[in-house]
Amino acid sequence: MLRASLKTHPEPSTSDALATIVAEATPSGHAGISVVRLSGASALTIAQGVAGRISKPRHAYFRSLKTASGRVFDQGVVLYFQAPNSFTGEDVVEFQGHGGPIVVSTLIQTCVEMGAKMARPGEFSERAFLNDKMDLVQLEGVADLIASASEQAAKSALGSLTGVFSKAVNALVTSVIELRIYIEASIDFPEEEIDFLAEPFVLERITRIDAQLQQILKQAEQGRRLQAGFSIALVGSPNAGKSSVLNRFSGQDSAIVTAIPGTTRDVIREQLLLDGYPIQIADTAGIREAMDAIEQEGIARSRQTALMADLCLWIIDVTALDLTPLNLCRSVLEQNLIAAQAGLFEDDATVKRLVVLNKMDLLPETMQRALSDLLAGDSHTFLVSAKTGLGWDHLASGIKQMVGVGDDSESLFSARTRHIVALTEAAQYLTQAKKSLLAGLPGELMAEDLKQVQIALGEITGQVTSDDLLGKIFSSFCIGK
Ligand SMILES: Nc1nc2c(ncn2[C@@H]2O[C@H](COP(=O)(O)OP(=O)(O)OP(=O)(O)O)[C@@H](O)[C@H]2O)c(=O)[nH]1
Ligand SMILES: [Mg+2]
User: Fold this and answer.
1) How much of the chain, in percent, has pLDDT values that exceed 90?
2) Which of 59, 110, 173, 422 is least buried, going by the fewest C-beta atoms within 10 A?
3) pLDDT on residue 201
4) Is there an atom of ligand 1 within 6 Å of 243 CB?
5) What is the pTM of this model?
6) Which 3 state secondary structure label does DSSP give 336?
7) Distance, CA 358 to ligand 2 centroid (Å)?
8) In ligand 1, which atom is closest to the CA atom of 286?
9) Does residue 185 sit in the same domain as residue 290?
10) Quick check: 36 and 108 in contact, CB under 8 A?
11) Same domain, yes or no: 47 and 164
């Protein structure tokens, strides 16, 4: 009864109703081998037209491949996967022919002449979804695995592909359904409703579901960051060493470094891996009263970049601070930072930020040691030298902790913005349900909120989807997938 009240994805159409589709599964170009994939009710008939009699599933047939007029254009291996035991759940045939563009286009053209249709982007995956071979999260995991830019990203994508994310979401949906059943039952017996809802386990359940939801949300955010990477903006006063920090991260002279304040004008972006995590790092113009229109524009861009970044590194020339062995203490350091901040961060106080005290190599050794001691255990302030690399490992792990991909937090699965949006929405409805319960409001309100939680969660795996959403997701995949 609960399920019937939800909008579910369209019923899988029978294979016969769908055209047989064809596309190259490997990248186009010149290669030793290319894979062309056929899927649909006529896949076997078409394949037999090209390669002769094929009967045994999962058997490698070495065959000459012929056009509709009988001209041999290639030799290759033909594999038949019988429905439902294939990627799409339909009859699938894979041709492993030679990887030349002419050979591949002749093969595809021949299949089309024999009744196949060119596949749309993501159409193979869409059919796998409609035939319940994989849910949406798993299919997105396939796409993420292919697109992974780092080993960690690939690992987390595999987690999604093998169902780690789906399982976590499905477990949550089951708990929500159980609670809904209980509450809906209480509505059916109005005279006992109050007692039903006052049972302590109702609140316990909601609290437990909330904790699980928050945990999944945190993991999903981490998974998304791993996949999409995270952005860091280097900001600070002129000459603080921002460009030197960029160069130290990228391991090359990406930005011009000079002793002249106001060297950098444009935003300079670099893509790199920080201990295996993809990051985009942006060097910006030093912020001060602009000397001319060019610098003014550069500074406006610095502020914009800082606002858009996942994390800002506020680079400070440590020798410019009023710190001496005699006055060195927390409060003096804080006062110095407050003074240095004037004019730098005005409306971007909400931006996540780490303080980087640069040029430590210029401090006397005793001062270096004293300042390091003062900062021991501080996860927001770092003492480094972009010139010598002192303090760099410590800064790198501070950055990872700050963006939620710290050493101890291996990501379990990959995730996308739409998953985060759905989880956040589910969390909001759950909070609302909890409030209704605590306020002693009628059970109907809570039941409705829980239904919305279930719908939001169902959108993640595709249990509840609109055609619109499906179209959007699959069209972002490439052809042949
Ligand atoms: N000794 C020492 N010098 C540094 C360090 N980092 C930067 N410098 C020097 O400081 C000066 C300014 O460095 P940049 O990296 O250009 O500074 P910036 O913040 O990008 O400056 P603008 O682009 O003008 O805003 C250069 O002479 C660098 O060689 C450091 O860690 N140690
Ligand atoms: Mg610079």
Assistant:
1) 70
2) 59
3) 87
4) yes
5) 0.72
6) helix
7) 13
8) 25
9) no
10) yes
11) no
